[in-house]
Amino acid sequence: MKINLLKTALIGALSLSALVSTSASAHGRWLLPSHTSLSGDKAHYVMIDASISNEMFAPDKAFKPKEKDAQWDDTLLMALMPNGEPVSDTIRAYYLKRKSSAAISLTEQGTYHIAMTQKPMYMTFYKDEEGKRKRVFGKKTDAKLPSNAQGVRTTKVISTVDTFVSRNGTSKPALLGLGLELSGPTHPNDLFVGEQARFQLLQDGKPAGEGIEVNILRGDTRYRNERGEVKVTTDKNGFFTTTWNAPGVYLIETATEVDVKEKGVDSGRYALFTTLEVAPE
Amino acid sequence: MLKVSTVVSAALLMVAALFQTTAQAQAPQLEIELTLPDLDVQPYHRPYVAVWLETPERKHVTTLALWVQKAEWFKDLRQWWRKAGKTDINFDGISGATKRPGTYTIEWQGKDLDGNAVAPGKYLLNIEVVREEGGRDYQRLELDLTNPGKITIDGKKEFSTSFVTVNAK
Fold it and tell me: What is the CATH number of domain B28-167?
């Protein structure tokens, strides 16, 4: 079931968040940086891997380039410099079947916010004549639907798949401003075992609501029998806290329902997949 | 780790009087006897070492020793870098070559890297030792610059039992 869903979603190279009713999706979409903290005078490259997998952070399915049979995608990833401007260099993500990889040159001092380019994705759900639930990509006004489709609903999904890398010290990360994302007070590149981290979940740059469940999953799930996800809930200003009990790379995952006033769209959804690194004390 | 301070608090009181009478006017504020063990491992790379002071709120005050020459490797001293690396301080004056196994005495004259006197009071002394292709040891302990005495610091593997002496000013 999970695998089938995953495959289906990948055919479209798009989010499958809309397929699950809760934010506790097991299908992680993620970026994995080669480094999260760099020092030194020379400009640094950071390598970013992007993939979709259930085994965190082992690559499984790559995001397919937009162009058919393309070997790379220059639009898959974006990076905001510490000053908030996008890096001007082309970020070429090579399509490597199970993952895409890109090298990004960091020339500035401070924190880079690196993300998959956020593109709205539309999915249309309906029931066929036998009452089976079906789904197609695209708005209901554009999608090819059987004439007797029942309960047709279109959902617009915007996913944030992001991470942070700091060079020669940290700075307040620039915000994407669209969809879900994490903000301080804790800096995303200053995470250590035994310390409490406090983040604010933002929705379109503003505090997200209360009671949103956030899943915190440590990587290397392949090498343990229990996934051991930690679930926390946002307070009224979107804040949540967690204390790291093991070092590693973590995926922070959540989703919210949002109002969409757009012709042919019935509901909206934001999803978040943020990769963070936690150091041993 | 912080239990070190409680363990030695009694000892501190006992030696305090002794130190007040013997301390020279020129004695450094802090003397840290740091021992890097002779590890029987291949390959062996000399460790990167950072010794620094933080406020009780864990803000970097000053760096006492930095045995790593290339800024490229600063990040491997993870605790030091997260605190000191946030500042614009130039570490050229304090950074030095890595050192072979042995016991070294680091003297601190009570001044920050700009030469300004550091106010008396409570601080956190941090020692971080990390060896390429090896392990990492990190210890943090409370000390009071106005409370003379000798404190034992238990290293685990990358540094051996070491000592810090607080001298009266």
Answer: 2.60.40
